[in-house]
Amino acid sequence: SAESAAGKYPVEAVEALVRTCIEAERSVEGRGEAPQDTLPFDRIDQTVAMATLYAAGHLNLKAIAALTNSGTSALWLSRYISGTPVYGFTRDLTTYRKMALFRHVQPVLMGADMVDRDAQITHVQTALLQAGVAAANDRIALTFGQPAGQGANTLRILEISAR
User: Fold this and answer.
1) How far are the Cα atoms of 65, 91, 127, 141 from residue 107, in angstroms, in the given order?
2) What is the pLDDT of residues 131-163, one digit of tens each?
3) What is the DSSP string of 71-136?
4) For the chain, how big is the Rg over CA atoms in Å?
C-alpha cells in the first residue's frame, strides 16, 4: 500500500491494514463451497488444485498436502478459502520460504535426500498425524507431479493408516 510506504505514519498504516485483513478473513464462511471459476484455465496444475478444493468441500477431508518443488500448486490451493488446512511439502528451502507468504498454506520442509515418492507420501501422513491435524482413518488429499518435477498432475485421496 502506498500509505505504508510514503506516509507519515507507516507503522500505524500497516497496523490498520492488518486489522482490515483480519476482519475480512473473519467475515468469510469457515467452509466454503467448491470454487466456481468463471475464468477459463488450461493449466493442468490449476485444474488439479481446483479438483482438490472441490473434493475437500465434499469429502470432509482433514487436510490438503501438496508435494511441490516450486510452490506453484500450493499457490493455486491458496486461491480459495476452503476451510481445509493446506500444507505445502517441499525439499527446497527457497520454495519453503516462498510458501510462508501464501494465504492459508503451512509450509513443511522435508529432507533434501527424500526423493522417493513413497517415502514422501509416508512422511506427509506421519507429519500430519504427529501434528494432530489428522488421525487414523481420516482422509486427506495429496497433490503431486508424476514424474516428479513436472508440475502437479495427480490428485490422490488417502485414508491415514493406523501405525
Assistant:
1) 10, 11, 12, 16
2) 999 998 999 999 988 766 677 888 999 998 766
3) SHHHHHHTTS--SS-EEEEES-HHHHHHHTTSTTEEEEEPPTT---HHHHHHHHHHHHHHTTS--T
4) 17
